[in-house]
Design a protein that fits this description.
Elements: H1 11-28, H2 31-35, H3 39-49, H4 51-54, H5 63-81, H6 93-103, H7 108-120
Helix pairs in contact: 1-3, 3-5, 5-7
Length: about 120
C-alpha cells in the first residue's frame, strides 16, 4: 500500500499571515520583526481576543488578550527606542507621525501604544 504524503494548510491562516506581514513591513519595515520575531502570532492572538478589550472584560478573564496587547505595545515601544538610522526602511508616514508626536511631548511607550492601535486598525 502506497502512503500519500500530504499536509493540511489553513488558507485563512496563510492569507492572514501574508497580509499582516506585508502591511507591517510596508509601514514599519523589517526591523520590527527583528525586535519581535513572533509578532504575527501575537497579532493573531490579539485579533482573536480583542473583543474582550472592546467589552472591557476584567484582566482575570482576559489574560490572553492583555498578554498579546502588552507584547505588541512593547515591540512598538522598543522599535521607537531605536535610533532612526536603524529604522530607515519604514514608510515615509512613520517617521513623520513620530516627529509630530514627539514634538508635542509623546514618549516611546505612548508612541508604542499609539502605533499598536494603528497596526490594529
Amino acid at each position: 500500500m502506497k502512503r500519500s504524503r500530504s499536509m493540511k494548510i489553513s488558507l485563512f491562516d496563510l492569507t492572514s499571515h501574508i497580509f499582516i506581514r506585508s502591511l507591517t513591513e510596508c509601514y514599519w519595515g523589517k526591523k520590527i520583526f527583528d525586535l519581535e520575531p513572533d509578532l504575527l502570532n501575537t497579532f493573531t492572538t490579539w485579533e482573536e481576543t480583542n473583543w474582550k478589550y472592546v467589552y472591557q472584560l476584567p484582566r482575570f478573564l482576559s489574560r490572553d488578550m492583555y498578554t498579546a496587547r502588552d507584547s505588541l505595545v512593547d515591540a512598538f515601544t522598543r522599535y521607537f527606542g531605536l535610533p532612526e538610522k536603524e529604522r530607515k526602511d519604514a514608510n515615509w508616514f512613520i517617521p513623520r507621525a513620530e516627529k509630530e508626536m514627539r514634538d508635542v511631548g509623546i514618549e516611546d511607550h505612548d508612541l508604542g501604544r499609539a502605533h499598536m492601535l494603528q497596526h490594529w486598525a
